[in-house]
Amino acid sequence: MKKILIILSEWGFWGEELIGPLETFDKAGYEVTFATPNGKRPVALPPSMDPDYIDPPLGKSVTSPEVAAKVKETDQSPRLNYPLSIAEVLPEMPYFSSPTLIRDLEDYYAKVAKVEREYLSQYDALLIVGGSGPIVDLANNQRIHDIILSFKRMDKPIGAECYGVACLAFARELEDRKSLIWGKHVTGHCKEYDYHDGTGFMGTDFNMGPPPYPLEYILRDATGPDGAYIGNFGKETSVIVDYPFITGRSTPDSYLTGEKMVEVLENGLKRYGW
User: How far apart are the C-alpha atoms of 144 and 146, rounded to whole Å?
Assistant: First the structure.
């Protein structure tokens, strides 16, 4: 039985971006483990459970009544209770001001290697679920980056959706700090789909307004001259496979993202969408 590690934000995920891949993994008979940065139970963003919510950039609902019901069922079920706490599994990178920096770094790398060898190696693939939450606690989270780097070293599939794709651009080896997706083809939330206002999170009434960064611009820079960001603006779906990465643009791509991850695992798919 194949095992998938699914990382979710503690500040809100978009419901279908979990349900789409999860339903596909369940049908394939895969075992899944949910993980969050500090072990807090993840919750779906309310608009992703409301079929009457009109997405401002698209001017229409992006959640069907059927999907909304599935999201509510999962959100209220015990399935998401007690996720793995990433902070309890992986060490924190030491500050470079430490008077014992060399020894601290040696210890840090040794612990990361042990986690990769003794824990992460049991998983066949990684998925980072999107929504606005990843902006807060996943995109610039060193422990999340270490998990991504571990899966890359193990040559195992790495999936990411929507704003979760930012994690791939920021996950870099300390030695050269080169983008992990340099020379790769990816998709992600394109500029045309960014909110002008209303980027919100769970657990706070803070309204960020527009997202703090245009993800498209980051991905264009991070893929370099031999790679590419592929937004497919105007097309209903955008999923790109450039092994080991499987990236989905946004909510409508959720089921297809899951399907392509299964194809990668079962059929050895290496390239799709470009």
Answer: 5
Average pLDDT over residues 261-267: 98
So where are the chain's domains? Answer: 3-272
CB burial readout 68-79, b (16+ within 10 A) else e: bebbeebbeeee
Q: Are strands 3-7 and 31-36 parallel, antiparallel or unpaired?
A: parallel
Q: DSSP code of 92? A: P
- In 3-state terms, what secondary structure has residue 32? strand
51-99 pLDDT, tens digit each: 999 888 888 999 999 999 999 999 999 999 999 999 999 999 999 999 9
Backbone angles phi, psi at 23, to 5 degrees: -60, -40
The residue count of the chain comes to: 274
Residue 231 one-letter amino acid:
G
pLDDT, residue 196, reads 85
Name which residue leads in pLDDT, 208 or 12: 12
CATH placement of domain 3-272: 3.40.50.880
The angle subtended at Cα 151 by Cα 150 and Cα 154, nearest 5°, is: 90
Segments of the chain assigned E as strands? 3-7, 31-36, 54-55, 60-61, 84-85, 125-128, 158-161, 185-186, 228-229, 239-242, 245-248, 271-272
pTM: 0.97
